[in-house]
């Protein structure tokens, strides 16, 4: 089976059950948003998918292959964080190339990918600058660029726009939509911003206390929320 399959995922931190029996299938190329209040487990679930953390129970498969025990680097996914996580002492170009340099990817191919991503994200003029010399929006573009140059099968984005001001957030939202249309890669997008989820996602996963409350298209959630919690969160008049 193609796509990403989560089966009965459980994650405990000590005695606390943070993810409780989450099962979900994400199709190839789909844009899925994880929404829910702060502390409901969105980041934890994304880190489990990324392989940055191991589930206490359940399994994760990518294209039918069980990857539960496979390291993050070998899953073919790329993560983009809210805090950019760029190396301050490196130029933008070096930040983009980092992690690709000692792989099978040839030098010329790395250069071509950097040029391509920089053009797509309109960060070409800044390639020689350090992250400290960039605005928040430019830094976030570099962080996204670093994911793009890896040519991942899926992008995992954890509140990538939440540090940006409102105006920039709206324009970056449009850029992300364009990027998804162009790359046709799977995107799993964590946000606590319902509007972002409603405008960007093919399907929305509503989480509450580590459980899935409802999964559906923005329209389904809006028209037929499963309960008051979903209705309240999505903002439908109920
Ligand atoms: P969200 O991203 O939805 O805000 P998180 O996934 O970050 O939520 O956190 C879910 C819950 O798990 C929270 O109660 C948080 O305190 C707890 N948690 C997250 N990471 C750890 C950790 N490394 N150790 C202990 N508890 C954690
Ligand atoms: Mg989080």
UniProtKB/TrEMBL annotation:
Residues 4-234 form the ABC transporter domain. This is Multiple sugar transport system ATP-binding protein. Belongs to the ABC transporter superfamily. The chain holds residues 1 to 238 of 359 of the full protein. Its main location: membrane. It is found in: Cell inner membrane. Keywords: ATP-binding, Cell inner membrane, Cell membrane, Membrane, Nucleotide-binding, Sugar transport, Transport. It is a peripheral membrane protein. GO terms for molecular function: ATP binding.
